[in-house]
Amino acid sequence: MNTVVGLAVSVLAFGSLYALLATGLALVWGTLGVFNFAQGSLLMAGALGGWYLVSDARLSIWVALPIVVVGCGLLGWLVYVVAVAPFTGRREAQWVTIISTLVIATILEDSTQVVFGGAYRPVAVLVGGNASFGPVALSWEEVVIALVGPTILGLLSLFLRKSKLGVAVRAVAQNLEAARLLGIPVQFVYGATFAVAAGLAGLAGILYGGEFGFDPTMGESLLLIVFVVVVLGGLASLMGTIVGAYIVSLITTLAGYFLGLFWAPAILFLALLFVLAARPEGLLAKRRA
Amino acid sequence: MKGSRLGSIPRRVTAQADVGARDRRGLVSTIVVVVVAVIAWRVAGNGYAVNIAIIACMYAIVAASWDLTLGYGAMFDFSHAAMFGVGAYACAIVTVDAGWSPWLGLLAGTLAGGASGALVAGTVSRLRGIYVALASFAFAELVDILVTSSSSITGGEQGMVLVPPLQIGSINLSGNATLFLYVMVGVLLVSIVVMRLLVSSSFGLGLRAMRDFEEYARSRGVPVGRHRMWVLVVSSAFAAMAGALFAGYTDVASPDLFGFSTSTLLLTMVILGGVGSIYGPAVGGVVMTVFVNIPAIAELDTGSYLLTSAIILGVLLFIPGGLWSAVSGGYRAVGWRWRWTHPGPGPLRGTR
Fold first, then answer.
1. pLDDT tens sequence across B65-99
2. Residue B154 CB partners (closer than 8 Å, separation 6+)
3. What is the model's pTM?
4. Could you give the angle at which helices A238-259 and A264-278 cross, rounded to 10 degrees?
5. What is the dihedral of CA A274, A278, A282, A285, to 10 degrees?
6. A99-124 per-position pLDDT tens digit
7. Of A224, A267, A289, B231, whose CB is crowded by the most CB atoms within 10 A?
8. Is the CB of A288 inside 8 Å of chain B's CB atoms?
9. From the CB of residue B200, how many other CB atoms can be counted at a distance below 10 Å?
10. A-chain residues near B340 (CB < 8 A)
11. CA of B147: which chain A residue's CA is closest?
């Protein structure tokens, strides 16, 4: 009983982390047609911020959290200005931006390594200790992570539907020309989209850091998992991405529990192979005729 | 039968773009040979420089073979850098753990790379565009994880040491660096010639047709799936061969070979050189290896990757066609030659 509930909470917690990260990718892809390889290192930046502000600058984690999310958002905007904006007009933008965002990822990771060293560092948790519900004991942090993901994604959906900026983002994603004609400042919307995606990554980073700590290359392995999420769910819809995140979390958690952590990536990749053989457009994407 | 099917592709559609390239092919290859020979001659006196020149030849092979998939196969194969590691590890495992001869290790490394390439091809066979990059990147990371976590075989994070060097008769090639440099220059030139022959063969013509206009190529009988598989196998095998040579020369195979930084450095070589010529990335490989190993820059350690990243960003922003295009003054039209998502030039332009 304890194990089953524990596993279920783990699945939900990891699922919500993957969903936060993958949603950012899908949002940027849907709006700009750009794939952001720096998303993993933005997550790393979030965890780094969490560690630095709490352990070094002695702030409360609750003060650090909004600073980190906003800071990562601004960093995301900067990434857009430096590595994406110069290429958006070009026909090969999709390919050039793979390289330029990969370069940004390397710059972020390596400069972190140069400044802070490559060592592993713990990041403060939002809520410490264990919760016990009758016979079941759970880590509060995992419960919090499991709840934060869906809450934030719900807010994101609300933002995209109700707010002026959110509607503008969707308008640009759906029809660029018409959006321009209506006077939507497209460059601004692009930058804002990148900032929102980066903020999501920063949030995921500080949450993930609380559970597993921080090191400069943490983004790479997470980015791998998120790639699988994105290939499984398809980049076309946010809902597909979120469902994909929970499916991947289910596969990795169960494989990790029953076969050992070593096999989890292999099982995940095998699952990916099977899905691709059956449905090349992703599990959840609509089939094109 | 196969030949006649391929031969029926109207050359106008794809070959047109390469007329300029063919005219200059002799010139370019001469320049490459001379440059490489001069470098080899100039550095042969100094131990450190010889060492760098040898490594440069290896990286040049990896970069040039990446061009097969990037510039001709129209696939962003992100597992390419990992194939370098696959070759190094396969060679190290069969020589250190199983005690095979280094030459068999080289063969095993190359074959392991080809097999991994086939595996990637299976994964991406029905994928296009961005999804190819994602799936192959996932494969590369998977290899990285498997290598670092199965420490009983691969030494985990520490990597493997004491990979035996190649020997000719009783001559230890790693001990005789100058001789090994000449061997490596030979291997590099042969590799470039083989790759060049490959892309100008009917197979290469099919590849270019696919890259420029996949549906049309398919309709004219280019076996798209098979071509995609073979180009991945061949390019991966070349990278893995370089990796096996690298392991034999430096006598280590370490997980560093897989990371983001290696991928970025290799990509820098390809981009600097310019995509779609084989020569360009090979030259880029030599130039970049020498550059990051200039003592003043190599001292920066991680910082050298930072510098490389800044350079590649600068090249992307200001010299879109790659350094090669800038140096050779319109060797290919300035601007990116990647027209993967658009129909190529020719009578059918605009029919989609």
1. 999 998 888 888 889 999 999 999 999 999 988 88
2. B89, B92, B93, B147, B148, B160, B253
3. 0.79
4. 140
5. -150
6. 889 889 988 988 898 888 878 888 88
7. B231
8. no
9. 17
10. 95
11. A262
